[in-house]
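Input/output pair, single chain:
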Amino acid sequence: MDTQHLSAPPHSSGGISHENTRHHARFTVIGNHLAQHRDLSALAIGLAVHIQSLPAGARADVRTLAARFPEGTTRIAAALRELETHGYLRRERRRTPDGRVRTRTVSCNQPGAVPEAAAPRRPPVPKKPRPLAVPHPEHTPRPGVLQAATDLLAGLHRTDARLTLAARDAERLAPGVVAWLERDLAPAAVRHALTRDLPEDRPIQRPAAFLAHRLTAQLPPRGHAVRPTPAPAPAAVRHPLRNCDVCDHAYRGPEPGPCPGCRPAPR
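Output:
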C-alpha cells in the first residue's frame, strides 16, 4: 500500500490546510475582498456568492431566495441590504412598455470597478504639457551645475518612489534647482527640502508639478540656509501573530515556535 504524503506543514498544531483541485467547468471566481469581508455577515457573503453564480436573467428577489435557502424572508432581506450598502448589489426599478414597474437586480463582483461589458470609450486626446513654473537662475548656469541639478532630480525616487520623474521633466525642473544651489545650499539640503513632509497614504498624481510648486514657493532668500530636520526615531517593531506549537495560543513573535509561557527557562 502506497504511503500518502500530506502537504500539511510540520509541527502544526492547528489551522487550516487546503486540498485544491483546478476547476475546468461550472465555477465562479470570487474575490477575497468579498469572501473575507470584515463588515458583512456570513449570510450576506453566502448570498453574494450564490447570486454571482446565477446566470443572467435568473430571479434573485427575496421570495425566490427564501424558497431556495432555509433562512426566512426577514434575514434574507437584511442580508441583501448589507450587500447594497457595500456595493455588491444594486436594485433598479424600471417601467416596462406595458406600464408595469419591474425590479432589476444587478450583481457587482467588484464594487467600484468599471464593468468589462461597458462600451469602449474613445481614447482621450493627449493634452500638451503645460510649462512648469520654476525659478530660473540669474545667469546662465555652467554645464556641470545644470547636470548636477538634473541628477539630483532624477535621484529623488530613491527617497520616495512617488517622486519618479521622466527625463524631460527633470531637464525642465533643473534650472529651478540651480536657483537653489546659487543660494549657497548644498545638494543634500535641496534634496531634503523637496522630499520632507510629503503627504502620507496617498499617491502624488503629478510629481513634476508638485516639485515645481515646491521649488517656487519654498525658494529661500540668499544667505538663508535650509537646516534639515532630524530624522524621526525608528518605529517599534510589531511582530505578526503566531500560534504556539505547545498550547496553540496566539502570541506575537519574530519566528514560529513556542510562546513565551511555554519556552524552557534559560539555565
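The longest strand covers residues 89-95. The mean pLDDT is 80.
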